[in-house]
Every structure is written in C-alpha cells, then in structure tokens.
Amino acid sequence: MQISDFQERVYRAVRRIPKGRVTTYKLLAAAIDCQSPRAVGQALRHNPFAPEVPCHRVIRADLTVGGFMGERQGPVWRRKIDLLRREGVFFRRGVLTDAARVYNPIL
DNA sequence: TCACTATATCAGC
DNA sequence: GCTGATATAGTGA
C-alpha cells in the first residue's frame, strides 16, 4: 500500500510532537486542515513509519487513551500508556491526568 | 457506491 | 456518568 499526500501530512505533524507531550486527533486534524479526525486515526493505524512517527502520543479529544496499533484494549494497547508514562505523561483509568500535557500542533 | 475506521458530538437515561 | 446514534472525511474492494 502506498501512502497519500494526506497521510504524509499527518505523519509530518505527528513527528513534531515534543517528548513528554501528547495531542488529540481533533487538534491534529485541524493542524493539517482536515475536518475529520477519524481520517487521521486511519492514517496512524496504517502508520508505516513506526516508531519514527510517535503515534502513541496521540489521544482522543476527551483525554481518554484511544487506541494503539489497531487495539483498543489488551497488552499491546497497554504499552501505549506505558510509553507515555515513561515520558512523564500519566493516565488514571485510561484518562489523562494532567490536561496541560496536551500539545497544540497549530501553535 | 458501500462499508469500514486508533473520533466528535449530542440525546436519552 | 454511561450507552447509543449520527456526522464527517479518507481509503480500499
């Protein structure tokens, strides 16, 4: 499968998320001028540049974890939380503890 | 065209 | 606070 310009835009935006910060699908979609955060999620799901593209730093707008590598639960999905915790981003019951950790890609 | 999706938002309970 | 229905954009068959 070959990636489109849209997905290239998504990966470029995700790549510039600083360590220790997270962003949301909604903000990410707004950064690439896309009205549909679901399309962003699909692009990250087919992410061929993992882990160069830190797709684990993307969560939902309601500050819940969301999914990781196609899994919404299970050990693989749990790894996403573990990676973020290692960077200083903590979750409680699948919800981001500190909302100030959210990074705005538009800025 | 149809049916998905790592979402967002709203209505109802 | 939770479940579901709907909107919306991109992608593959």
Give your account of this protein's structure.
The strands form two sheets. This protein has a two-stranded parallel sheet with strand order 1-2. Strands 3-4 form a two-stranded antiparallel sheet. With 107 residues, the chain is mainly alpha-helical. The radius of gyration is 13 Å and the shape is globular. The longest helix is centred in the C-terminal third of the chain and has 12 residues, at 75-86. 36% of the residues lie in helices and 7% in strands. It has helices at 5-15, 25-31, 37-45, 75-86, and strands spanning 23-24, 58-59, 91-92, 95-96. The protein has four helices and four strands; from the N terminus they run αβααβαββ. It binds a DNA duplex (13 and 13 nucleotides) through helix 2, helix 3 and strand 2.
Search tags:
single chain; 107 residues; mainly alpha; two-stranded parallel sheet; 4 helices; globular; DNA-binding
